Amino acid sequence: MGSWIPEFAMAMARWVQAVLPGLPHLLRGRWVEGGAALSLWLGLLALAVVRFDRILQAPGGRLDERVALLTLVLALGAVWGWSWRSGAGRGAASEEGEGNRGGILPGGWRAFRKNRMALLGLMMAVSFYLAMLLTPFLAPFDPLAMPAFDETGHASLRLAPPSPSHIMGTDQYSRDIFSRILYGARISLTIGLLAVGISVTLGTFLGAVAGYLGGVVDSVLMRLLDMFMAFPGIVLLLAVVALFEPSVFLVAAALALTQWPFTTRMVRGEILALREREFAEAARALGFSRVRILMRHLLPNAMPSVVVVATLGIGNAIVLEAGLSFLGLGVPAATPSWGTMVDHGRAYLLDAWWVVTFPGLAIVLAVLAFNLLGDGLRDALDPRQGGTVER
Amino acid sequence: MLLYAVRRVLGAVPLLLGVATVVFLVLALAPGDPASVYLKPGMSPETLEQIRRNLGLDAPLHVQYGRWLLSFLQGDFGQSLAGGMPVKDRILAVLPNTLLLASVALFLAFAAGILIGVVQAVRQHSLLDSVLSGGSLLFYSMPSFWLAIMMILVFSVNAGNVWGWPVSFPPSGIASDGHDLMGPMEQIRDRIRHLTLPALTLALVLAGGIARYVRSSMLEVMGQDYIRTARAKGLPEWRVVWKHALRNALIPVVTLMGVYVPLLLGGTVFIEYVFAWPGMGRLMVESILLEDYPVVLAGTFLFGAMVVLGNLLADLLYGVVDPRIRHGHG
Fold it and tell me: Which of A82, A143, A306, B68 has its CA 20 to 30 A from that of A63?
């Protein structure tokens, strides 16, 4: 008798699972994943409700609005799907699978998850990029609109301090700073990603070639690298931007020019060490071609370190791009990047501290996210390093 | 030691040539005619051709490169387009200011970084350790130009009047207007007051990274046998930490100094710009806005050269503090 009780409980659990993904994890004590999933789910739903009118117009709207709609749907779907897969009664089994699956993080996900700071960094980075994609729905105001007066038609909005309607205040043209920061993220965050994409691809290739071939190629490349590393990044960037016409691609390429030596040097070192390991020797003994050994055996093992360098590199690139924009030499764009906003706000430092402070805070938080994430990945991927330090 | 020093110095020479080469490459790859910066309205094509010939732009690229290298290494950077002064004079006028700012900031950064790192290592896993770690990472992630503005906001604009801050520092320039009328002691005080905010900002940005490095270096040393021996023979803990451990932990930190030279000099660009400090970085940014390319290229070269020399100094210093380096493989 009474076999319906567990059945009912199961049904309830499924129902809760479907409506509030993450809650079952939370109840089972997996605070981090559960909390992140649940808050992301609720946040996205709240956004969808509050901005319902904008979402309705999105399908026929501008490109960024359509992208935002797609992001919203995909993000909701991803949270829900993840929760369903990993939470629906298969908890233990799927967790086992997760630990062994990650290609780039071999068994490292568990070590990574223990690192609270790294998780915080990951969440910050993800939310920054989500916010960037969802900007058309998130931004309370038009970033370019210059209303002379507030809704009541009396008070001037010029350089208005932070208030409930303009949570970060307004600038000298009465534009909402919070909205401008959201739109400014596009340049600041994508250029970093683009620059690191270029520099990591180039650096990995050159580093692998130098490390594996050795000899003259190696010495020539390393001397070249020393030359480029002799310049402070911003100085080389200034020289390039001064002589060429600034565009998104040029700035990204120039940023990559300042970053590739670090990837190259690191990959070369990794390949040099891996080349002497037994598995590489075995591959040579089996008569595999050099290209195959490099591509299939050595490089995959160097990838974890590449990921770390790339993560830290994104933070670096964001700071450099912000600096360039701050000096007035960055990418010309309709909505300014964070560095430009700090630059423009500098003239109003005496009257309006919020104009410079908030865009700068956005830079700090974005860079901090990637530094935390990079440090955490390094610790998770290289237990030796963490081990000797944390003896 | 002498052999080691000679080897290091000889190693720096090709690097210096390389730095000049990179600058030439940037110029050679740039679109447009370098002579066009001299172009004025109403100039005849013949005159432009003459200018090109005077500048040596009609010669083949490798000849241009040779001349360029020779003149750069002799310190001849041509004429500045703004004002017509030799580039060399303009740079020499501001170089000491940059060196002063950079050296004071470097000293402050390492002093603070070492102190924080040691305290963290001694109190590992304590609340203080976590707070200092978080603080280090925060400052390490900050763009220097923004921190500079925040420093001005707190210690200059709002100091005294809003938050009742006891001290305020001048936000810009290298000396007050009436500097020449002051007595010698007053002059020194005035200069120090102007130097405080720029040097402190630059040091704060750098100190975080140094502290993290010193912390891990100290932790590694603290686990060594000779530290246990020092403790076992009854030395007071402060002696163990500050004499036995720190001395050994600082050896790798000296190499860090070489790594930090590019970061330091790159930082001066922003700091000088924000604090209106008349140095190399500010000159470079101003020259870019004025399209004064000879100054930009010379500045780029000199920044690279300063990094090479800074690394050389760090290498030599490393040889001094670590006998294994200068006697061993060197």
Answer: A82
